[in-house]
Design a protein that fits this description.
The complex is a heterodimer of chains A (117) and B (320).
Chain A (H helix, E strand, L loop, with lengths): L8 E2 L4 H8 L5 E5 L11 E6 L2 E9 L10 E2 L3 E5 L26 H5 L6
Parallel strand pairs in A: 1-6
Antiparallel strand pairs in A: 2-3, 3-4, 4-6
Chain B lengths: L2 H17 L12 H14 L28 H9 L14 H17 L10 E7 L7 E12 L6 E8 L2 E8 L5 E8 L54 H4 L14 H6 L12 H7 L3 H33 L1
Antiparallel strand pairs in B: 1-2, 1-5, 2-3, 3-4
Helix pairs in contact in B: 1-2, 3-8, 4-8
The chains are: A alpha+beta (117), B alpha+beta (320).
Amino acid sequence: MLRNQTRLRVVDNSALGKQAMLEGKPPKVIRVYNKLDVGFLGDKVLVTIKGQMKKAVVVGCVQRQKAFVPRFDSNNCVLLDDSGNPLGTRILVPIPNLLRKLRPEMSKLIAIATKFV
Amino acid sequence: MNPIFAFRNVSETLCKRQLSTTKVNFKHGVNVKKFLKWDREKRRLNTDEFPDEYTTRNCRSPRKSSFKQSVLTPQLSELRLLYPEFLPSNFPERRHKIKDLLEREDMLKRRTQVDLPSFYVGSILAVTVSDPYAAGKVSRFLGICISREGQGLRANFTLRNIIDGEGVEIRYDMYNPTIREVEVIKLEKRLDDELYYLRDALPEYSYFPQDMLPVVQPPGEPVPLNPLKVKMKPYPWTKRWEALYPNIKGIVNLENVPQHAYRRSRNAHYVNERFDLMKEYREHITEEDQLEIWENVHERLDKIAQIRKVERRRKFLQSN
């Protein structure tokens, strides 16, 4: 459950994300693009990161999930640029298989993933 | 609280206190209320001298042994630990004899289709599931079983592992038809019934390689108990383990926990739980009721095992 002001962990290899995580200033959610305004697995969110606004996709949640859906130890996100393509070239942690359901929107994100669980 | 129980409690604890070289100064005899208050406050400190020995709401109370001779044979009472999902619900309002019977039939039917091995919390399992979204439509996950809950067809277990430095947990419904195979990689028990504390323990305790080879359990030997005690990460945790600490045996001493954390955990304690006979009666199912279930289940599982044995032999002969 990601509300406004929730901190996320950037799990791609984009320079912006890496730098923000190293400085100990992980991005904050300021808007969730769904009706509830509460983010779940696979939702698009708007985050503030190092003074910029960026869109991101939630690829892992700490929240208890349904059976057969993985639950992670941190709330993970992948940063997107303005045209909706991922900023980095690789995702460094496993992402759930369930995200394949959201193709073709997610197809570029799935292409840069290294592992699925 | 029953005054007799209260008095016994006071006298018992007083004896303990005097033995443990602490001073109890009550000027005019023992004031029960005052003593219990003092006792409770002291216990909350959870020091070595005053260990916090009460169970909490979150933990299931330990099963008390009855004075009577057991109705169940040792063989049948072992099934209770191997297949806990065959018992009716812990909540008495959810028990229904016909529903439970029908569910049990369905479970046994499913067991004829897929081999669901017996395992415990703390065992290492690998589960293969057919998943429409996975590459090749099959996904396999290996991890340590950290909990096993639910009765009947709702029975489930959770596997935990660390992949690329990220903790991953997956809950599996045991009787879901999408499950293809459950392999027991290492059969063992741990000191606790639930290992949720691995989330806040150091990552090395929940890491197992995905291509781990199965460890062969010699037949006829008892299931080994792994007396491993885990080290926790530094203090702020996702759950208040310090409140549950005395009941969790698989953790080494907690360090750097501030005193106010114990004080805050005051409401988590249901102090007189160990005297609550009705609570225990409601939570447990009497042996007389269990006997009927286990006799039936034992018979059916034996038949399934025999059929499987014959099939295996036939396959072996065909391959030769």
